[in-house]
Write a structure and sequence with these properties.
Blueprint (H helix, E strand, L loop, with lengths): L2 H15 L14 H14 L3 H23 L2 H28 L6
Helix pairs in contact: 1-3, 2-3, 3-4
């Protein structure tokens, strides 16, 4: 989605929250699921898995940071960036485990 679309969704959620409890189900940014799937397959089949992971992490970081900057205050953006970095570090660790112990994209 675009920053404008995120702002619209946030506005709708704020309005709904004024009248009661709100539950929102949020999906990945467009193409993120495909990028993750492609990276897993490339990691499992290419000789330079480290480069695959580095490229994936940088792409995810850049896309999510760009969206966050468009819709969050500086303070919230800093909190979001810290949380995002934790999650990306965890993703990097999962790839490292896959490299050490092996895995198949079909598993």
């Amino acid at each position: 989605g675009t920053p404008e679309r995120f702002r619209t969704v946030m506005s709708v959620l704020r309005e709904a929250a004024e009248t009661g409890r709100v539950v929102a189900i949020v999906s990945a940014l467009s193409q993120v699921s495909r990028q993750l799937s492609g990276a897993i397959e490339a990691f499992a089949t290419q000789s330079d898995g480290t480069a695959v992971v580095a490229d994936l992490l940088q792409t995810l970081r850049d896309r999510h940071r760009s969206q966050a900057e468009a819709v969050l205050s500086d303070e919230r953006g800093d909190e979001y960036t810290a949380l995002m970095n934790e999650h990306l570090h965890s993703l990097q660790q999962r790839f490292a485990e896959g490299e050490r112990f092996g895995f198949s994209p079909a598993a």
